[in-house]
Amino acid sequence: MANQSKLTNIPTTCIEYVHPWTDSCINATAGLLIVSALDSFRIYTIVYVASLLMRGRIPKRKDLSRTVLGIMQSTAFLTTSAFSYSAYLCFLRRVFGGFNIWTGSYIPAFMSSFTAILVERPSRRSLLTMYVANVATEALWRMASSRGMVKSIPYGQVLIFGLSTSSLLYYFRSGVHLEGKDSIYDIIRFIVGRDEEGGQKEVKTIKPEQSTRPRIKNNYLLIQKFLEMHKKVTDKLKALPKHDKCPHHHSCAYYTIRGGTKLFGIGLGIQVALKLVLNIQRIVKSPKKTMSIFFAKDTLKIGAFLGGFSFIYRFIACFLRHVTNDDKPSYSIPATMLASVAFMSYPDKTAALYIMWKALQITYNMLSDQGYLPKVPGGVIFLYCAFTAVLFHAATFEPRNLRPSYWKFLFNLSGGRISVMDRRSFDVWGLDTHAQIMKTIEMTRTGTDIKYTFGRW
User: Fold this and answer.
1) Which is deepest, 89, 206, 232, 360, by most CB within 10 Å?
2) Better-scored residue on pLDDT, 343 or 228
3) Whether 83 contacts 109, CB under 8 Å
4) How many Cβ atoms are within 10 Å of 447's Cβ, its own excluded?
5) What does the pLDDT read at residue 112?
6) Are 256 and 311 in contact (CB under 8 A)?
7) How much is the pLDDT for 445?
8) Residue 338 belongs to what domain range?
9) InterPro entries recorded for this chain (predicted)?
């Protein structure tokens, strides 16, 4: 029976496949509702409270009220997505008398996602779509790769990042970004600087200021000497030549070096802070290992990427303005592509795919606003449902192609139930589903604590 048609129904019951721990579809759905509600509440409490704290001010009663309502609504959204998936699986089995490749996960996941997204706030739907699109794109690539349909390209994520960022920076330099006002441009402005932003007034060269620093007592003589030396070097860099077409205030050398060193320092600070948070238990147990944690090779990755990108971009942009005696938005394309080489020091797939989907979203919105592409009503909702269904399909039939972190998310959300769904009857489709799920379960057991135990493996 191997490699049976995937459109043919497999005559397995929902008791055997969906909820082998109970004979009741209602009990299975109710149990999933309870455990998913608890985990959803935990997740969104952390998310919303962290967002509230990041504002950097004492929250008012209105802020607290919005936070509580946001937690409750988002918890309802994620809980609905979890328990309605199980309910739709049982419903479709009763309608069709079995499961095929579509009704075994994709269609019920699409239906549950549609039900759930209507519960969530409209302002969050686009953000959720971007996230699932990111993870689903990676899953689809792995699925195609496992079938021999595509081949991985070395540092392909760097190419994706470069092409996507080039389009965003072109919009940024052209000034068209002012129409959409997407938050991604705040990040771009932070990395390349406000001077590269299109639509700004032309600036004039500013001579280095001869500022005076207060004298410091002898106890801090070394610091005083360092500050004086830093000021001398900075003033000399500022006084170097600057092309009239360059939009920045001081010399090109100062502009380039300052951008690179500033972003390197910020990236280093981010990496150190992350290491401190993620390794707090190890540091408390063994303070002697603190230095080894902070001075590891990967500590410089984010700083090298941010600093390298800013330095190379500014250098190439100024070089092109010097050579051509002009300043065009199109110069941002070669400057960005060359600067993207710095992404090799931090080749994160998630970041590359996020930038790709953000560029596609902004491009589509821009072209649809100009009348070149039609506006699709409910397009965001459809994309969210389609991509989420892909993730549930991968988790059901070929989990090796799903990002491990997303599998753990589904595992915790379902209280371990996703690992107990009996998929052995689906092996006739030639996907080695049972073997894949057993290996994934073993990896999950060694990596996380399982609080719930069901099934009969």
Assistant:
1) 89
2) 343
3) no
4) 10
5) 97
6) yes
7) 67
8) 159-205+242-346
9) Tmem135 (IPR026749), TMEM135_N (IPR031926)
Q: What is the mean pLDDT of residues 159-178?
A: 92
Token digits of residue 83: 């328990």
What's the CA gap between 13 and 107, in Å, rounded? 17
pLDDT reading at 105 higher than 90: yes
- What is the value of pTM for the model shown? 0.83
What single-letter DSSP state applies at residue 341? G
Please, what's the b/e burial string for 427-437 (b: 16 or more CB within 10 A of its CB; e: otherwise)? bbbebebeebb
Confidence of residue 4 (pLDDT cuts 50, 70, 90): low
Residue 251 phi, psi (nearest 5): -65, 160
Whether 142 and 186 share a structural domain: no
Question: What is the average per-residue pLDDT within 159-173?
Answer: 95
Amino acid (one-letter) located at 435: A
Gap between the Cα atoms of 21 and 48, Å rounded: 34
Number of domains in the chain: 2
182 φ, ψ (degrees, to nearest 5): -80, 145
d(CA 457, CA 453): 11
Contact between 370 and 184 under an 8 Å Cβ cutoff? The reply is: no
The answer to whether the CB of 21 falls within 8 A of the CB of 455 is: yes
Residue 213 is assigned to a structural domain of this protein: no
Q: Is 366 among the domain residues? A: no
How far is residue 158 from each of residues 64, 153, 350, measured CA to CA in Å?
A: 41, 10, 11
pLDDT tens digits for range 263-309: 999 998 888 888 877 777 777 777 776 677 667 777 889 999 999 99
State how far the Cα of 330 lies from the Cα of 333, in Å rounded to an integer: 6
CB 146 within 8 Å of CB 400: yes
> Helix, strand or coil for residue 99?
strand
Q: Based on the fold, state whether residues 187 and 320 are members of the same structural domain.
A: yes
Backbone angles phi, psi at 10, to 5 degrees: -90, 120
Residues 340 and 434 in one domain: no
Token match 């069901």: residue? 454
- More confident site: 237 or 221: 237
Give a yes or no: residue 370 inside a domain.
no
423: in domain? yes
Q: CA 406, CA 308: separation in Å to the nearest integer? A: 31
Averaged pLDDT, 62-77: 93
* Residue 382 burial (10 A CB sphere; 0-12, 13-18, 19+): middle
Q: Is residue 243 classed as helix, strand or coil in its secondary structure?
A: coil
C-beta neighbour count of 154 within 10 angstroms: 7
77-81, 246-250, 277-281, range with the lowest pLDDT: 277-281
- Residue 397 confidence (pLDDT): 93
